Amino acid sequence: MKPTGRRMPGRRWESHRDEKQRSEQPQYTTTAATIKSRVKPATYFAARLGASLNPHGSSWQVAGLCPFHSDAQPGSFKVNVITGAAVCFSCGFRAGDVIAFEQALERCSFRDALVSLETFATARRHHDS
Questions:
Q1: Three-state DSSP state, 82
Q2: Are 99 and 32 in contact (CB under 8 A)?
Q3: pLDDT digits (tens, 9 = 90+) for 85-115
Q4: 82 vs 11, which has greater pLDDT?
Q5: Mind listing the pLDDT tens digit for each residue in 114-128?
Q6: What is the distance between the alpha carbons of residues 55 and 81, in angstroms, rounded to a whole number?
Q7: Residues with Cβ within 8 Å of residue 57, at least 6 apart in sequence
Q8: Are 90 and 75 in contact (CB under 8 A)?
Q9: CA–CA separation, 123 vs 106, rounded Å?
Q10: Three-state DSSP class for 52?
Q11: Torsion over CA of 103, 105, 108 and 109, rounded to 10 degrees?
């Protein structure tokens, strides 16, 4: 028996009910590129980690203790205040940008990380004005 519905390129068979459910879900228009442009890595890491970072200093800066393991030696966790990348030389944690860091820190999906960072950017914009 052939499935009902239509075949989307690169997707599974979908029924008309699946299309209706997907159209009822909230649509987020904020893209990852927009979030990255609105969230300054130095501000984000300073707020999330309580670290004092210099946005005009060296790109890689020590950001205190790693939040992903019981770290006792400051200096092993570094963040890049330009790209938002993060690395811990003790546990091996690596994140390429603030979105990946937020996903790992909150243990959430990509979409949830975008929503969280959008909220952070909006709050910072209102706080700074």
A1: coil
A2: yes
A3: 999 999 999 999 999 999 999 999 999 999 9
A4: 82
A5: 999 999 999 887 766
A6: 6
A7: 81
A8: no
A9: 18
A10: coil
A11: 10
Question: For 22, which DSSP code?
Answer: H
Query: Per-residue b/e over 34-57, b at no fewer than 16 CB within 10 Å?
Result: ebbeebbbbbbbbebbebebeeee
User: For 37-92, how does the pLDDT look when each residue is reduced to its tens digit (9 = 90+)?
Assistant: 999 999 999 999 988 888 888 899 999 899 999 988 888 999 999 999 999 999 99
Domains for the chain: give ranges and CATH numbers.
31-128 (3.90.580.10)
How far lies 122's CA from each of 39, 72, 119, 128, in Å?
A: 9, 34, 5, 10
The position carrying tokens 């393991």 is 69
Residues in Cβ contact with 32 at an 8 Å cutoff, skipping those fewer than 6 apart: 99, 110, 114
> Residue holding tokens 């690169």?
10
Answer whether 76's CB lies under 8 Å from 88's CB. yes
Residue with tokens 């909150």: 106
